[in-house]
Amino acid sequence: MQMQKVKKWWWQLFVTMSVILVAGLGMGQVAHADTSLQKIKDKGVLTVATAPDYPPFESQVNKNGVSTDVGIDIDISKQIAKDLGVKLVIKNMDFDSILVAVQTGKVDMAIGCINPTDERKQSVDFSNVYYHGGQSFLVTKSNAKKYQSASDLEGQKIGAQTGTLQYSLAQQQMMGSKVVGMGKTPDLIFALKTNKIAAVGLEEPVAKAYAQNDHDLAVVKANYKTAEGESGPAIAFAKGNPELVAAVNKSLDKIAKHHWVNGYLKSAGKYMQENTVDTSMLRYWHYFYNGFLNTTLIAFVSVFLGIILGVILALMKMSKFKILSWPAISYIEIVRGTPMMVQVLLVYFGLGAVINIPALTAGIIAVSLNSGAYVAEIIRGGINSLDKGQTEAAKSLGLNHKDTMRFVILPQAFKNIWPALGNEFISVIKESSIVSIIGVGDLIYELNIVRADTYRGIAPIVVVMVIYFLMTFILTRGLNYLEGKMNHD
């Protein structure tokens, strides 16, 4: 009998995962056909994905408290949009997500110093290479004499942004060296300055930009051997859009003919110098304020929706009808057994391929769905903790099952589980920071922007840490006060 239950559970899990996989693949197929030159012109909008933490190619400048995307890639995108006769819309997200955004139809193209490697060409199409700058290493000034060439770095720890050409080249050509991958360039720079790694592999203009704005850093030539076509960045598109690629290449040829990239580089350098004139955290208070508002919004809405979903799932799971209990059990187990990052990406790029939803909305949906699974188990535990005599007493008073749950069981269960719900609320505040990977401007996202703009590794982290602490501390005290009132009543 027990073996049959186990088989049923695994069959149920297999069916649920199969449905999710087929749905995801189906959504991906739909997305591939969504991007074309004519559709862009019909919309009147060119949507571009980028990761604004890689100056001078893309970064943000603080203009009176308003974040503005600037850099070589941004200027190139503006020229392409102008040539197409459409409006430019930029979507900021993590570098690891921008190619996925192209593949799933969230954007029309991705630009972010993306090198057209053979592996990437299997998933997306590329434009012509628009800049030939070469590869370099950043080292600390104190080690500049020790590491004067790439050969001196062999056997040392080399840092590179995950998913980049620099990461692959270091693995393939820096024999005996350990490659340390991180998602953000500011994190790599901080690791370098704290002697966690010996060097950071970067595009030459990026390395020079950091060295010019941080006198503790120096540039060393990488001298990598690169395949033809991999020696510089290109623009990525979804597969099967030759007309769009041709139109963009036409704009890139115009840019190259007039040597505009050099002008773009000077313009980006000017913005970088403006950012480093005043790197005090007070100058960036508006960034942290916006991050606080978005983090608070996500937490409050997600917990509210999570409680509603949790009640439904808990009642379904406790139902005697398998048609209700099995889906609830499957949902709870799958959500609790997978990382929230995966869930956020699935909602934004998967569901978003069918319904074009903003990043903030996708983030709230993903966090709500995740919270609902945990809240369901909390509520179920609260219901099971009540004495069965409560249900029997309600029946003796003539209450039906629905009224018993509404007026007797759930009010008492919520009183018992209040501390656990409070802990879930606090957890959501902290764990919702994962939505920054799809470009939601929460505290972590704004933290990375400030670090990239100011070249300061520690100060922005401390500010965000204090904000998170104050949020959770005040919330904890408020929840404790309400719990005391409830117990007193």
UniProtKB/TrEMBL annotation:
<keyword id="KW-0732">Signal</keyword>
<dbReference type="InterPro" id="IPR001638">
    <property type="entry name" value="Solute-binding_3/MltF_N"/>
</dbReference>
<keyword id="KW-1003">Cell membrane</keyword>
<keyword id="KW-0813">Transport</keyword>
<dbReference type="InterPro" id="IPR000515">
    <property type="entry name" value="MetI-like"/>
</dbReference>
<dbReference type="InterPro" id="IPR010065">
    <property type="entry name" value="AA_ABC_transptr_permease_3TM"/>
</dbReference>
<keyword id="KW-0812">Transmembrane</keyword>
<keyword id="KW-0472">Membrane</keyword>
<dbReference type="InterPro" id="IPR043429">
    <property type="entry name" value="ArtM/GltK/GlnP/TcyL/YhdX-like"/>
</dbReference>
<dbReference type="GO" id="GO:0022857">
    <property type="term" value="F:transmembrane transporter activity"/>
</dbReference>
<dbReference type="InterPro" id="IPR035906">
    <property type="entry name" value="MetI-like_sf"/>
</dbReference>
<feature type="transmembrane region" description="Helical">
    <location>
        <begin position="297"/>
        <end position="316"/>
    </location>
</feature>
<protein>
    <submittedName>
        <fullName>Amino acid ABC transporter substrate binding and permease</fullName>
    </submittedName>
</protein>
<feature type="transmembrane region" description="Helical">
    <location>
        <begin position="345"/>
        <end position="367"/>
    </location>
</feature>
<keyword id="KW-1133">Transmembrane helix</keyword>
<dbReference type="GO" id="GO:0043190">
    <property type="term" value="C:ATP-binding cassette (ABC) transporter complex"/>
</dbReference>
<dbReference type="Pfam" id="PF00497">
    <property type="entry name" value="SBP_bac_3"/>
</dbReference>
<feature type="signal peptide">
    <location>
        <begin position="1"/>
        <end position="33"/>
    </location>
</feature>
<comment type="similarity">
    <text>Belongs to the binding-protein-dependent transport system permease family. HisMQ subfamily.</text>
</comment>
<dbReference type="Pfam" id="PF00528">
    <property type="entry name" value="BPD_transp_1"/>
</dbReference>
<dbReference type="GO" id="GO:0006865">
    <property type="term" value="P:amino acid transport"/>
</dbReference>
<keyword id="KW-0029">Amino-acid transport</keyword>
<feature type="domain" description="ABC transmembrane type-1">
    <location>
        <begin position="292"/>
        <end position="476"/>
    </location>
</feature>
<feature type="transmembrane region" description="Helical">
    <location>
        <begin position="457"/>
        <end position="476"/>
    </location>
</feature>
